[in-house]
Design goal:
It is built from 16 helices and twelve strands. It has 374 residues and is an alpha/beta fold. An eight-stranded parallel beta barrel has the order 3-6-7-8-9-10-11-12, surrounded by five helices. Bound molecules: iron/sulfur cluster (SF4) (2 copies). One iron/sulfur cluster binds next to helix 13.
């Protein structure tokens, strides 16, 4: 597996990182239940294949992610780098950190991130004297944290300001970037110019590109090229990208993604330009930008929100309406039998409070139902 120098951290990291947030699961009694045995197998398979960066957070996978990862890396801690997060909603950083160490079965965290941080929090609380950044710095001085980093869904301008305010204490940035969302290019370039490591979440656009689209027609190899492969090649052709995190739930995905990450020939400038031109036409997608992160799940009314948004995008963005309607009509049958369609929404609003993309989920579900219901 190809490795890169991760900024100035002195660490050599595999170009493909493992985002431990989409592990294999089943739905039982309207609840997502993670298949821990398969999850551990996939993680160990990835280590065997040379992936050495694993990114988790206390709340991922219904709060099971750290525990499952901890079990998977037992006896193999020295082969990998661990990244986890501090949830800024809970001020007790030390308690959260201790819990992460315990769940992961380790005595140190290589990359400790402020999770999904925005400028208003950082300028007010994060930077306060003896506040979270100072306390993280203390953990670093004690050797318990290797490097301090942050992830964010804030605007690129605000992320740049956070980096500036931290005065060199952030050593890495985790942000979203993919073929259909290139907003963060300026902050990635800024971080890179300062010698920070740059890692990406959502390099595949949440799997939205998983079907042949008109985009595929302009890609090298046309529709025969796997869309996930193209999405990864696209992000790796940006010189400001160090590593891309992918949430992989099968060994097949691990193999495919590694093959692409090892590809010595990224997209040419001309290929990138062609793709960017088509992607720009699809900008309306950003109005409904679901990354399939699953934070809004489970919905108490049994609605598989990210899945419905995926179907809606097939119709709305790519114009493959027949397929989208057929898929929507199958909700409540077969493998989807535990789910309801969007009309089951009881308007509780729980999902919107969890959505990092700040989507108007209830309105969008109504629109999706209107467009896709028979
Ligand atoms: S608002 Fe609707 S979709 Fe969202 S959690 Fe409540 S019932 Fe589910
Ligand atoms: S609707 Fe929001 S929270 Fe739910 S999966 Fe999509 S991006 Fe994530």
């Amino acid at each position: 597996m190809k490795q890169v120098e991760y900024g100035k951290t002195g660490k050599k990291i595999s170009r493909l990182g493992f985002g431990v947030l989409r592990l294999p699961y089943e739905v039982r009694e309207n609840r997502i239940v993670y298949d821990e045995e398969s999850s551990i197998d996939v993680i160990r398979y990835a280590i065997d294949a040379g992936i050495n960066y694993f990114d988790t957070a206390p709340s991922y996978c219904g709060k099971r992610s750290q525990l499952i990862l901890g079990e998977a890396i037992r006896g193999r801690r020295d082969e990998i780098y661990l990244s986890t997060k501090f949830d800024t909603a809970d001020p007790d950083l030390e308690a959260q950190f201790e819990n992460s160490l315990k769940e992961l079965g380790t005595d140190h965290i290589d990359f400790y991130h402020f999770w999904s941080m925005d400028l208003s929090y950082f300028a007010d609380k994060g930077l306060a004297k003896n506040g979270p950044l100072d306390r993280m710095t203390k953990l670093k001085e004690q050797g318990l944290v290797g490097h301090i980093a942050f992830s964010s869904h804030d605007t690129p301008e605000n992320m740049i300001e956070m980096i500036r305010l931290a005065e060199g204490r952030f050593e890495a940035l985790l942000c979203q970037y993919n073929l259909l969302d290139r907003r963060n290019e300026p902050v990635m370039a800024y971080a890179k110019s300062l010698g920070m490591g740059v890692s990406l979440m959502g390099p595949m656009g949440g799997g939205r590109l998983g079907t042949p689209t008109e985009l595929m027609d302009v890609l090298p190899g046309g529709a025969s090229v796997a869309s996930a492969e193209t999405a990864l090649r696209f992000v790796f052709s940006n010189p400001n990208v160090d590593i891309a995190l992918s949430g992989m739930n099968t060994t097949c995905m691990v193999d495919e993604n590694i093959r692409t990450a090892n590809d010595p020939a990224p997209l040419s400038r001309e290929e990138r330009d062609r793709i960017e031109a088509v992607a720009d036409e699809k900008k309306k997608l950003s109005d409904l930008y679901c990354t399939a992160c699953n934070y809004c799940m489970p919905c108490p009314a049994g609605i598989n929100i990210p899945e419905i948004f995926k179907m809606y995008n097939y119709h709305r963005v790519y114009g493959i309406t027949d397929y989208a309607r057929a898929q929507y009509g199958m909700i409540g049958t077969g493998g989807d039998k535990d789910f309801q369609n969007a009309s089951a929404c009881v308007d509780c609003g729980l999902c919107e409070a969890q959505c990092p993309q700040k989507l108007a989920i209830r309105d969008e579900l109504k629109n999706a139902h209107e467009a896709l219901a028979p």
